[in-house]
Amino acid sequence: MTEEYRQLKEYMDQNDKTVAVTGAGISYLYGMRRLKQSVGTMNARRIFSVSYVRKNPEKFYEIMKDAFLD
Fold first, then answer.
1. DSSP 10-51
2. Percent of the chain beyond pLDDT 70?
3. CA-CA distance, 50 to 2, in Å (whole number)?
4. How far apart are CA 23 and CA 49, in angstroms?
5. Residue 45 clears pLDDT 70, i.e. is over it
6. Average pLDDT over every residue of 30-56
7. From the CB of residue 35, how many other CB atoms can be counted at a distance below 10 Å?
8. What whole-number distance in Å separates Cα of residue 42 and Cα of residue 16?
9. Residue 67 CB coordination number (10 Å)
10. What is d(CA 33, CA 39) in angstroms, rounded to the nearest whole number?
11. For residue 24, is pLDDT > 70?
12. Burial tier of 53 (Cβ tally within 10 Å: 0-12, 13-18, 19+)
């Protein structure tokens, strides 16, 4: 395991929640709605920006919950 992976694992172990943003289509292959259907006219690139998540954590998690959890 490289040092970068060790640091990432350590960081993730110290936190209760982790969000992984993968390439386009990965969730759709597993029967989940497309993110675009969930965010509507909102710009997905903006939603996933660090600044948006830091300023709007509740809204970000609400969007993710609505997008990926039934």
1. HHHHT-S-------TTHHHHTTPPPHHHHHTTS-HHHHTSHH
2. 69
3. 25
4. 15
5. yes
6. 74
7. 20
8. 27
9. 18
10. 11
11. no
12. middle
d(CA 59, CA 34): 18
- Give Cα separations from 4 to 12, 17, 19, 21 (angstroms): 12, 19, 18, 18
**Lowest-pLDDT choice from 16-25, 46-55, 57-66:** 16-25
| DSSP conformation class of 8 | H
Instruction: Please tell me the pTM assigned to this model.
Output: 0.46
Residue in the block written with tokens 């993110």 = 35
Q: Is it the case that residue 55 has pLDDT exceeding 90? A: yes
